[in-house]
Amino acid sequence: MIRVLNFFCVALMGLSILALYHVSEKTRVARVELSSVNRQIGDEHARISVLETEWEHTASPARIATLAQSKLGLDNTATVQLSSLTLLPRNGDEAPLSDGPVRNASAEAPAQ
Q1: Which pLDDT tens digit goes with each residue over 60-86?
Q2: Cα-Cα-Cα-Cα dihedral sign, residues 98, 101, 102, 106
């Protein structure tokens, strides 16, 4: 009886050793994968900072103004702003800030 109990204890000890080795090996593999992912995250952060720098260059107001002037012919002149409601034209009156008459901007849908 004692020999059977000793055999089960040794077998249980061997199984627990194998289980602990398996957990240890899974932990080692997870640590290697984690370091790989951390390295990839660092690389992506570096790429993001490069893209942010390129975007700052691309979206700079001076560059956009230069492109607008060279490609579209737009100047950086100030536009006329209305400062009060009295400067708004009445329906049918001539606009105070332009040379042409104000026209009705509504469109009628064609009959079907």
Answers
A1: 988 988 888 888 887 766 555 555 666
A2: negative
